[in-house]
Amino acid sequence: MSSQASSQSDEGPILHRIKVTSGWCIEEKRRRSRLSQEALADDVGITVRWLREIEGGNPRATIEDHLRCAASLGLATGYLLILILFVERQMNFPRELLLDDLSELEERCVSSIAEFSVERLAKRLGLSGRRDVRPD
Length: 136
Known about the structure:
Blueprint: H1 3-11, H2 13-32, H3 37-44, H4 48-55, H5 63-73, H6 78-88, H7 103-124
């Protein structure tokens, strides 16, 4: 078994898919921003060779490596969280959409989580029938 296949099986297919797609997003955003690998690597504080590994989905790259590159490119961290949710549930998410402005989608996700949390808390407190219990 090759070392890459061994590394992939050690970390699991879900994490591997996340890193491959995230690497693609980083590369595409960098290219669309007309930024060289050298410039991005310098900005992030890594070598060009390591940036190539991250963009290629190398299993040894950490999620932190991906987040640092994404932040430097102006990608919202939501791209990674949305990707994780879809991959974990074995659902396909068009990766091109991850490059779009995700602020509205992120806002809806946060609002849904807040509303869900308030509703669950209200049920636990026996307030589920009251109309004055609403998320802000």
